[in-house]
Amino acid sequence: MDTPRGFAEILWSFLSFLPYFMLLFLLGAVKGIIFCPIVCLIMTVGNSAVILGLWPAHVIWTYYCVIKAKSIGPTLKSICCICLPLPLILWPVVAITGSILAGLSYGLLTPLVATFEAVGEEHENKLVDCFLDGTWSTIKGSCTVVRDFTDICFHSYFSVMDELYEQQPKNGKPLDIKLLQLPGCVLVGLLGVIVDVPMMSLIALFKAPYMLYKGWQRLLHDLIGREGPFLETVCVPFAGLAILLWPLVVVVALVSAIMSSLFLGLYAGVVVYQESSFYLGLAYVVSSVALFDEYTNDLLYMREGSCFPRLKYRRNTAALSGRFSRRYSLNKEIMDEKDGSIAPGNERRGPQRTKSLKKTIQELNTVQIWDQLFESYKTIGMALVDEDVVKVSDIEEWNHTGKYSVLTTGLPAYCILKNLLHSAKYNSEGFMLSDGIELTSLNRPEDRVFEWFFEPLLIIKEQIMAENLQESEELYLEKLVLLSGFPDRMKAWQNGGISPEDDIRRAELEALSRRLQGIAKLISRIPTFRRRFQNVVRTLNVEAQSRASSSIHSSISIRESSISNSNLKPGNYIGTL
Fold first, then answer.
1. Residue 272, CA distances (Å) to 128, 291, 354, 427, 450 in order
2. What is the pTM of this model?
3. Rounded to 10 degrees, what is the CA torsion of 224, 225, 230, 234?
4. What is the C-alpha to C-alpha distance for residues 270 and 59, in angstroms, rounded to an integer?
5. Which residue among 136, 428, 480, 509 is least packed, with the fewest CB closer than 10 Å?
6. Of 33-37, 214-218, 363-367, which range is least confident?
7. Among 444, 449, 200, residue whose Cα is nearest residue 338
8. CATH placement of domain 366-546
9. Structure confidence by residue, pLDDT tens digits, 342-382
10. Can you spell out the DSSP letters for 155-175?
């Protein structure tokens, strides 16, 4: 739609929007108030039962894995055993409190957002959907949250601890700490908490009103002029909701800043140990305040730099820019490339308006990529079932144990490898998804969890391209990724893959397969993975059972036909019966 021009059009657009928005907001708020207690009760009771029921097992298994871990030295084990009671005792308290708050926010906000979504263009009966959307779906969603939380506590946790228990020490030397440096680390870490937490909290409190003012100023300016998020009709209700919920965003940002200051202060002890210098640890305590101030200035488009001193706290780096400052600079460069507005002199840009829906429709979201990933699991998995590579025993093992098997790690890693090989052949800058869409650094989701996997997979793809693998080596790598740990099944699978004669080449392929399997294990620990992967396993189970039954019927038919067509003598025929 065209942007309104003139004061009369702007005023009429503003006045016609207010009652439309307020009616939707009141309806969504009423639904939220009705369903919020029910949702909060489901999530609190369900999560609390899981937390308290598994807490003894978590305590026992945590201590057992730490004590038996071969990758941890004796000194570090002793310190861990002394410090573990505090987080283990706080875990039920923090988790149950978080479940209550999550239930309240989910039960209140989900019906409210669903009410605004009901007026979208894809809804035909908008009036009925405004009343019904966000009611039963919110209750089902709360049950899904409990299910995913159960998977985290029962499967993801034990998977992480089992990996710690089975992990071998790197270079044959377990990880340990120098006991003599421990008092200095503890002292500087406590000093960092004492200094950094109040200083960073004051900085965040001082800048919170400015964040509230600038956010409201931009949103209201876009509302009156029908620009930014208010340019598209479908986005108007959500943009109006953003105006009301902006104080909540500021509060969340403030709480997050205060909580992160605790860990930033404790990191001073890590600096002391890494640099073996008490002075450099103190320098980090001072510099972290300046880095935090500079980072918040960049986020709010305030003046560059900081009024606090920034000292050198690393021996091997000439210019210190802090992990979060470097990460922000990288993200800012990517956003500049997306906007196509990098100035020749790298000039500082002012606050940018939110993109319209038409401009952001090219960007991919995490849900879309997640859907494509599980669709590839199902498609490739069914093909492997048809080839009798994935067997019924693999599916039964996953259903009964859920631990390492061909399905748990092999199939996800195999699908990722197929995607990487396909992307490498087409010389893609990123990854080619199963639907043909190319995922690059410009259209990838701005999601912290997604970043954990995007960069390592990009590096593996570059390594595959640099290796210049032959077709037989690619097929052998597929064998390694899918059936590693099952040498007999690797030999039985005649896919054309041949092990390289060169030992170095073979070791490189084995290292690539281990890295892909490690990434697949990390993906399998994401909360929603097991619930969605279970649907894939059910589909594969149906396919495997139908294939097994069809093979039995075909063998019976062949046997019957062979008996009927044979010229048996009467005596032999009686003996056969």
1. 62, 18, 42, 44, 31
2. 0.74
3. 100
4. 26
5. 136
6. 363-367
7. 444
8. 1.10.565
9. 334 444 333 344 333 333 334 456 777 888 889 889 999 99
10. IIHHHHHHHHHHPPPGGG--B
Cα separation, 114 vs 28, in Å, equals: 8
Task: State both tokens at 139.
Answer: 């209750």
Residue 193 and residue 268: Cα distance in Å, rounded? 9
What residues does CATH 1.10.565 cover in the chain? Answer: 366-546
Looking at residue 158, its amino acid is F
**Closest to 232 measured CA to CA, from 151, 327, 313, 120:** 120
> Are the beta carbons of 99 and 228 closer than 8 angstroms?
no
Locate the DSSP E strands across 62-137: none
Q: What is the pLDDT of residues 552-561, one digit of tens each?
A: 655 566 565 5
| Residue whose pair of structure tokens reads 């038996």 in the numeric block | 68
Identify whether the C-beta of residue 235 lies closer than 8 Å to the C-beta of residue 366.
Answer: no
Query: What's the Rg (C-alpha) of the chain?
Result: 29
Cβ–Cβ under 8 Å, residues 18 and 230: no
DSSP designation for 72: B
Q: Decide: residue 212, CB within 10 A, 0-12 exposed, 13-18 middle, 19+ buried.
A: middle
Distances (CA, A) of 371 to 7, 150, 152, 365, 415: 45, 22, 20, 10, 13
Q: Which two tokens stand for residue 130?
A: 């405004």
Question: Residue 526 corresponds to which tokens in the numbers above?
Answer: 């994401």
Please, what's the largest Cα pairwise distance for the chain? 107
Nearest CA to 13 out of 21, 216, 357 is that of 21
Angle between helices 157-166 and 503-524 (to 10 degrees): 150
Q: What would the two tokens of residue 330 be?
A: 């990288």
How far apart are the C-alpha atoms of 400 and 412, rounded to whole Å?
A: 19
Which tokens belong to 426?
């087409």
Q: Which of 306, 77, 57 is nearest to 175 (CA)?
A: 77
